[in-house]
Amino acid sequence: MKREKVQGVTxxxxxxxxxxxxxEEKREFARLVDLDELVQLKAAVxxxxxxxxxxxxxxxTPSGLSxxxxxxxxxxxxxxxxxxxxxxxxxxxxxENGGSKEYSCxxxxxxxxxxxxxxxxxxxxxxxxxxxxxxxxxxDGCFSLALEDVSREMVRDIAQGALEICGFEHRFSSDEFxxxxxxxxxxxxx
Amino acid sequence: MKKNVKSTISFFRLxxxxxxxxxxxxxxxxxxxxxxxxxxxxxxxxxxxTKNDAWDVIEGFVQECERGKRRxxxx
Lengths: 190, 75
Fold this sequence. Notes:
A: alpha+beta, 9-stranded antiparallel beta sheet, 6 helices, B: mainly alpha, flat
């Protein structure tokens, strides 16, 4: 077991133990232990994963990008993505009236298609193929983008563009990264 | 590959991706955005698809699992 993990487990056990001591026992404990050691242990407690749905998330995956965007920016992002990728053909497979439906259009026609289908595309699941690039959405701004034959630079550009659409700015420099917005603050890991 | 097969595999990938994020998405998000779409896809394949479609889905899932395992091993 790694040293940090041992420290983390020890700190958790100590916290649990301390919470059960009477005030007198706590005073006696404080007299016996080295405060510096305790502070060191506290710092080593591993941070737990935050639970919930962030306002914005953009992160690399083995296939491309995973995105969580506010629903009001979802259609804007899809339209922008079509412009950036400039595919020959766009094919849409989406949930409609309790079943699935297929559409196909050119980039020029896509903008008009989005105008007439913005509500189902925002709320329901869909898969949109821009030639070799596939965007899948569970609705409500939840996307997975498969970009396997696209350069890492293009992946970064798309991630940055998605953030900008949502009102945030960051220039990614690594091949693997994530950016998440909690409480209006952008947190980036590269 | 048929659209419903490709889409089913894509939603499975979306589910795996959510398990590998730095945060834990809410159960409601997983249910509405991944599990319900997956259930609808399964229902359509069961109703209108062929045995080959079902097999293609399983093979796609296996590929996504392998990809997911590689990422988990790296992190």
